[in-house]
Specification:
Layout (H helix, E strand, L loop, with lengths): L14 H8 L3 H7 L8 H14 L5 H6 L6 E6 L5 H16 L3 E6 L3 H13 L4 E5 L5 H10 L4 E5 L2 E2 L5 E5 L1 H14 L5 E5 L6 E2 L2 H13 L4 E4 L5 H12 L10 E4 L2 H13 L10 E3 L16 E3 L2 H13 L8 E3 L2 E3 L5
Parallel strand pairs: 1-2, 1-3, 3-4, 4-6, 6-13, 7-9, 7-10, 10-11
Antiparallel strand pairs: 5-8, 12-14
Helix pairs in contact: 1-2, 1-3, 2-3, 5-12, 6-7, 8-9, 10-11
Length: 340
Amino acid sequence: MAREKRPANGGNVTADDVAAAAGVSRWTVGRAFRKDASISSKARQKVMMAAESLGYVPDLRAASLASDRSNLVALLIDDFANPHKLVMMERLTRILRRTGWDILLVNTLDKDDAGHAFLNANQRRVDAVILIGIQFDDDVVDAALHARRFHKLIIFARDSKNPNTISIAVDDIHAMKEIANYVHERGYRKPMFLAGPRTHSAHLLRKETFVDYWQQHFGAEPETEAVVAYDPALAAEIVTKALVGRPRDQMPDIIVCENDALAMGAIDVIRHKLGLRIPDDIAVTGFDDVPGAASPNYRLTTYRQPLTAMAEYLVEVLESDEDNNLDRKFLGTLIPRESA
């Protein structure tokens, strides 16, 4: 008699049922669902066809308990006013899922919430925690490292000097030197640098690099302003306070922004509150090349991070048995547009 097909929800279907339907051992069924297992493509296909027919879903939690890997990573992210965070999240989750990694996504609201998120990651038995944000200072990172059960703590898109973390980031120093040279070559001589929030453990080196490089090579100290978050509206407030009512001959001729979110806020103020032209009166540069940067409203000169290459390297780090000497910096690409 033909074997009766089980319910589509797979609630009562076991690995033994799949093994019988596929004509293989239960051991082979288990290996077919392990990404790193040695198994022939023919055997894996037979198991997958039988599993689909029966509606079988493996118990991933039980499988992870039987090994030292769960193939689950926690992605802690904040600062959603910054459009680049959404781009990074999309790229990371797509490449992680494509390579067999599942993601626990946590939106960390503030520094205290970040601590709870680390605790949650510990309880969920994740293989690694990936930080993408500005709220993970030294105290939070040290506490997470002290109490962790996960194997690796990865700082993505920021530089970290903590020896117990792994940093995967664009080379900010190289990027800002390239931007400074670009700005100078095009005749700008009075730059203002618009920086984002200052952090300690996971830090951007863009403001320091630009200011120091401009002083050393061009003999003047750029004016600087800072915004407490990567938010276009907050950037607009700071630029408004800095420039509204200032005599024209004391205006900067270019605003170099730490990222595109700040640049977009600056452009809105220059056009709509100051009534000035971009780039004729004040030029603007950004960093990240978010999707809106190329829109007709901004046409923003910016610096594109190689997110795909960075995400693919992150997968290499996750799958590596090594824990040391895994930091890596990547070179991006300057994208000239009409804003500068």
